[in-house]
Request: fold
Amino acid sequence: MTTERFSFTGTAGTNHYLAIFNAAGQVFDWLDSTFKALSSATTKATVGTEQADLGGTSKSAYIKDVDLSLLNSTSTPAKFRCDWYTDANATTRVSETEQFTVVSSTIAGLSSEETTKLTAVHSATTTAISELTGVPSATPTMSQILMWLLMIFRNKSRVTNNQMSIYNDAGTSIATQSIEETSTEFIRNKAS
Reply:
């Protein structure tokens, strides 16, 4: 299942509804996942989830994740547009129209390289990172950098007059740094 997140910034504390239309002007009926004439659809728009305080003063972001295979799972490109409304009947539009094409359950228009990169970014931001067991190399991955910083700021650390120790979540020391002090400088040496 490939999902796409649609978003809109609107007035905080209100409901905003997403409606999707095909090229023939039919609306996606969220009740039975089919396209119908606007007058025939039961659920013309679906409510977005409010992400409070993400839109600025008195504004919120509203998001809705959509399974693109419900729109078009074939290899023939299909064009769609979406709008945000203040009501479930899709009568009061509050957004600019967003147009997009779906091919084989994915948004078209991205190269395979761009799709691969977006998939990697999504995976990197949604996959848990394992705790480090030692000091990262001089050329760490982004995950290692983030975990190193998290461990330094989150976990226990101990500083004596000549050494700093960094611990993992279980309380085991994973790295030390020697500390030197001269009459004019405080030096924290490379972690090992």
Q: What stands out?
A: The helical segments are 112-126, 142-154. The chain has two domains: 3-125, 142-188. The mean pLDDT is 87. The two ends are 44 Å apart (CA to CA).
